[in-house]
């Protein structure tokens, strides 16, 4: 996610042309394993797996490496299954959006029912294996995270409210909690704060994206904040949430749950985030022609979350905190 055209690109180009396989009603090209892989949104899964792994590594106590691997694999499978269910439900909308039109279902490379069955099987299998091999608290949180993304966010929040990303941010915030619970069998303050970091990171991260793909969302009637409240309000909210994020990221250090290694790293990384968010928040229409600040914030926000969670793990390894 060469100059030679890939199979995916070729299918995308012939789709809709008279006489092409993809254009003929009821006729689908056989799904390739890469299409099933694409259903899992592998770009998103990388972040999910990493934050889940950080939750596992930051947790007090120990876990057998094989059991730990199984836990992370289950988190990845659960996230992938939820993503497949999301694409099953939104396939009609995906076909109308430039950013998503080449996904397996709208591109005509996969039947919707195959995506549904794949998503249900992957999600169910991940929860059962997590429960049997790790513990049932981690399995229960994993099951709820799948339900949250596939049902609460995809079916209810996303098409009905511009607060979809704000409330729906919880869907992607569970992995560190699951990783922690896999080791400890419980949930304490630090994993709750790790959840909160992702929760408050999601609005500025996603609204930065929404600002430069807002026409896609407008075309399909999804009430994203820039289309409902306008660009000016969205920009101000991006900056406002960056300040909330700063406070949330610093909370583990302020509460003594982590040490100075995390505290200093988190402050520097978050100061850069707030500075980029300020450029987006106070930018006026007509400045520039490529929405460069929005794209910079979106790109940095991904790196930022990786580094914040890496700092948690490094800090816990260098300065173990008893009782966190």
UniProtKB/TrEMBL annotation:
- Quote the CDD domains the UniProt record gives: PT_UbiA_Cox10
Keywords assigned by UniProt, alphabetized: Cell membrane, Heme biosynthesis, Membrane, Transferase, Transmembrane, Transmembrane helix
One Pfam family, short name: UbiA
Source organism, top-level taxon: Bacteria
The pathway to which it is assigned is: Porphyrin-containing compound metabolism; heme O biosynthesis; heme O from protoheme: step 1/1
User: Where would you find this protein in the cell?
Assistant: Cell membrane
Q: Which reactions is this enzyme annotated as catalysing? A: heme b + (2E,6E)-farnesyl diphosphate + H2O = Fe(II)-heme o + diphosphate
Q: What is its main location?
A: membrane
Function in brief: Converts heme B (protoheme IX) to heme O by substitution of the vinyl group on carbon 2 of heme B porphyrin ring with a hydroxyethyl farnesyl side group.
Family classification: Belongs to the UbiA prenyltransferase family. Protoheme IX farnesyltransferase subfamily.
Q: Under what name is this protein listed? A: Protoheme IX farnesyltransferase
